[in-house]
Amino acid sequence: MVKEIGEDFFYNLKKAVEHAKNLINENTKLKLEIKKLKEELEARKDEITQSSHSECYKKINDLEEKNSEFNKRISELEEENKNFATKYVELESENNNLANLYVASFQLHSTLNFKEVVQIIMEIVINLIGAEVFVLYLLDEKTNELTPIATEGIEIEKTNSIKLGKGVVGRSAKTGENYFSELIPIYDEFNEDAPIACIPLKIKEHTIGVIAIYKLLMQKEQFTELDYELFTLLAGHAATAIFSSKLYTESERKLSTIQGFIELLTK
Predict the structure, then answer these.
(1) Whole-Å CA distances, 197 to 64, 98, 136, 214, 251
(2) Does residue 161 share a domain with residue 63?
(3) What is the pLDDT at residue 127?
(4) pLDDT for position 8
(5) How far is 223 from 232, CA to CA, in rounded Å?
(6) 10-residue block means of pLDDT along the chain (267 residues)?
(7) Helix axis angle, 2-43 relative to 50-108, nearest 10°?
(8) Judging by DSSP bridges, how do beta strands 131-140 and 206-216 pair with one another?
(9) In a domain, 265, yes or no
(10) Total structural domains within the chain
(11) What is the pLDDT, as a whole number, of residue 188?
(12) DSSP of 20-86, one letter per residue?
């Protein structure tokens, strides 16, 4: 789909550039023709009749009007080309982000090691989202608490578990809805209940955790439209990868325990 959109875009851009070149060439020819007629009129002003004189000026006026129309159309095309260039940059940026997301998604599902999955999620939030301070919480269904399992830009010892439904982070986890601060304040110090964004990690409608972002990297002043799409896609992939790796780890632990009992009984 993206490939087809890109091909259509480049085809239209090529046609617009060709059309602009043709108009500029026609405009140049008209200018030369007007100049030639004026020079001829000036050279033969004593020879030609008043009638011919008027006809020549009429022809020059007609050509100048036509030239004015060409200049107007060229200006319009230049504006269109600027729009094409802007759209090209946007499309290139979107393609890069989609490619990065594809690579990130592949990495998330390339391992069943829980620690590796968590590390990959942290790297994605840093590199793809541009977050500098954030916390990854997982929901403990027995206690109904969100427990911090990984942090960036803040020591994990300075974070606390959050009750489901309590505060901004807890409410985001309970409702399963993304939270974004209307204004991004200047980051002063870590305040667990003042995130600028919360992304619930969900499998269908079941929330298993939350990524709470507190500060963006210096070069990033605000979230973009594409960020919102990436958050949604990331939430699903990260949740699935975490859930799968936890199940695998638990099954491995149980299998190891069972094998230990079997070995003990057979000795």
Answers:
(1) 60, 21, 12, 7, 34
(2) no
(3) 84
(4) 59
(5) 13
(6) 51 61 68 68 56 67 74 73 72 72 77 89 87 94 94 94 95 93 82 92 91 86 74 83 83 63 61
(7) 160
(8) antiparallel
(9) no
(10) 2
(11) 83
(12) HHHHHHHHHHHHHHHHHHHHHHHHTTTTS-HHHHHHHHHHHHHHHHHHHHHHHHHHHHHHHHHHHHH
- State the pTM of this model: 0.62
What domain range is 243 assigned to? Answer: 112-255
Query: What confidence tens digit (pLDDT) does each residue in 186-244 have?
Result: 888 899 989 999 999 999 889 999 999 999 887 777 777 767 777 877 788 889 889 88
| Same domain, yes or no: 77 and 159 | no
The count of other CB atoms within 10 Å of the CB of residue 128 is: 17
Is residue 176 domain-shared with residue 78, that is, in the same domain?
A: no
Which residue do the tokens 């830009």 mark?
153
Confidence at residue 187, expressed as pLDDT on a 0 to 100 scale:
84
Q: How far apart are CA 157 and CA 154, in angstroms?
A: 8
pLDDT of residue 11: 60
Tokens (6 digits) for 165: 């439904």
Neighbouring-strand partners of residue 211 = 136, 199
| Same domain flag for 64 and 125 | no
